[in-house]
């Protein structure tokens, strides 16, 4: 199962020629992507280009038809049992667009549930960790509130803390600001920026172009299930030759972030 | 002594209203009647947990996505919902009970009493109603919430245990309370196989005393009272489990 | 993975639902064919059982018709602006909604006389009519609640809208409000009808010759365990074949109304 080839020592995520389709629809048509430990990578591109599906492949929420996926030394595409996938997911955090906090649990219980029940971590230590994380996302005073009492931005920050409580080796952010009111987007981006500065390996699917430019080590542009180009933010946003990327990036940054608020599909 | 006086006063008062409650002063009939109340309450108290436990199990089977679990339960749910409880009880008592008797070598060895069959038939019937309500609640949990739990490494059972059931139980609580009220009423079918619950005991009294109207008033008041209590407990649980900021 | 999980039960339950329509009668037929001596016995008793079941249907139709008429009136009374109209209806509904069907059938059977005097003529008052009244009382209490809920569920803006369009009050009721009420109350009404149909079996306990009673007669006469089993399976099959399609239709209507 575990194949740690010497070439991929630094790489924590490696996708090689990944193909995936849902029924008749081809979503990924040969994705190659390598992400090193400690990197922050942004995946950008038009709606339906397969960005979110790439994240779901890395977390084994979907299984591609062909191609190799290696995450933290595990060949994800070769996992056959749900129990093996669950083992992987415990090590890879994911934060979703709709936050998906458990509405019947307090903020603190939302964070503590998975580490104590799923990982079997010590309760006292986990509560202590959860309080530290809440402080980090600046929500200490909301520990005993229920998700329904929080704003979207606050809920999303709790969701980030919940993912971090599992002590993941990397975190996937799936359009985490797309469902938020414009005024609360900033507070969530702020938390992610902090996290990346602390050296957390992060993969973001995002429409926040300026944010992607600011925090990314690498930017990946996808379209129609393929990676069209990737490189430093400087390359992708300012010196690309590709007319499609130019059009996309120009159209978005010119129009400001309000222009990209249409709901993203897959 | 105090009790006797009160009974006498009650009988006297009622007879002035034209209602005949004289049997209360007799030893035997009053005893039978009181035992009837206790039997019904006992029946209700045992059948409610049975229905809840099996309702949960049935709901888990129905939503498991495994055909060998969901198909038999689905079949049972449809059968019990669409046939009269009385027929189910008679079938169980006359057929299943006889089969059990034959297996253990004679009715005298059969440990299963009519009381057991009422609990089993009514309990499982109402469990089917609960299961449908809980299933609806489980299916109403948004798929994105389930994906989030999967993404954090929850197994299918853990998702059911920590996410779907707590949410489904809350949203299906009003339907569950309705199910429990129909459970209380359904326990009267025990009458058919001589379980001496309250309607059976009342018949014993009114065949002697010819005071059907009087007994009916008490029966209706009694069932209104139990169902009132059940509904109140339901409301109390609902309030206790209500989540701030989460409208259901 | 997630798609597979959500699709499989849907497809299989669809197959299962179709089986539901024929499964029980099929079981009876197949069993009768396998054991021909049993089948012969059953065929002899079928007319007797059928006459019993026709009584169930008769009681159901009468009880639901009576109960619906009374229930709609009671439901509207519960909404009346005058307390002396509202209160009796509310008390009636509260008492009888909580009453077990069996208790009401006992009540009507034992309280009403076996014949009534009308204009000097003695009219028989058969037990099945008493069972009809017992079930009608119960269903009227349920239907009163359904009616009340349906009327309350129509937002006041609907009334205002009809006024704005120049409808008279009666026209508004006829063309806008009532159709919506009927639409909303149809599925729960069908549930009541179906549970009344099943409740008719309780009439056997007060000696009405209906299906359950007929099956008991038959099994006592034949005295064979396998015949007793098949007789009760026939009883269940009869009720199931009547009530299952109603339940299916109810669910279809509910889904359609919720979606619309």
Query: What's the structural domain tally of chain A?
Result: 1
Helical content of chain A stands at: 25-40%
Integer-rounded radius of gyration of chain C: 23 Å
The pLDDT mean of chain A sits at 86
CATH superfamily membership of chain C, which one?
MetI-like
Q: In the CATH hierarchy, what is the architecture of chain C at level 2?
A: Orthogonal Bundle
Name the helix and strand elements of chain C from N-terminus to C-terminus, one letter apiece. Answer: HHHHEEHHHHH
Distance separating the two termini of chain A = 29 Å
- Silhouette of chain A: globular
Features:
heterotrimer; A: 266 residues; alpha/beta; Rossmann fold; 6-stranded mixed β-sheet; 4-stranded antiparallel β-sheet; 10 strands; globular; disordered N terminus; disordered C terminus; B: 248 residues; mainly alpha; MetI-like fold; 9 helices; 0% strand; flat
In terms of topology, how is this protein built?
The complex is a heterotrimer of chains A (266), B (248) and C (260).
Chain A: E1 11-22, E2 25-36, E3 40-44, H1 51-58, E4 66-71, E5 74-75, H2 82-89, E6 92-95, H3 107-117, H4 123-136, H5 152-164, E7 170-174, H6 182-197, E8 201-205, H7 209-215, E9 218-223, E10 226-231, H8 233-238, H9 243-255
Parallel strand pairs in A: 3-8, 3-9, 6-7, 7-8
Antiparallel strand pairs in A: 1-2, 1-4, 4-5, 9-10
Helix pairs in contact in A: 3-4, 3-5, 4-5, 5-6
Chain B: H1 2-16, H2 27-62, H3 67-81, H4 85-104, H5 114-140, H6 143-151, H7 156-186, H8 198-209, H9 212-241
Helix pairs in contact in B: 2-5, 2-7, 2-8, 3-5, 4-5, 5-7, 6-7, 7-9, 8-9
Chain C: H1 2-34, H2 36-78, H3 83-97, H4 101-111, E1 115-118, E2 121-124, H5 127-153, H6 156-164, H7 169-199, H8 211-222, H9 225-259
Antiparallel strand pairs in C: 1-2
In short:
By secondary structure, chain A is an alpha/beta fold. Helices cover 36% and strands 24% of the residues of chain A.
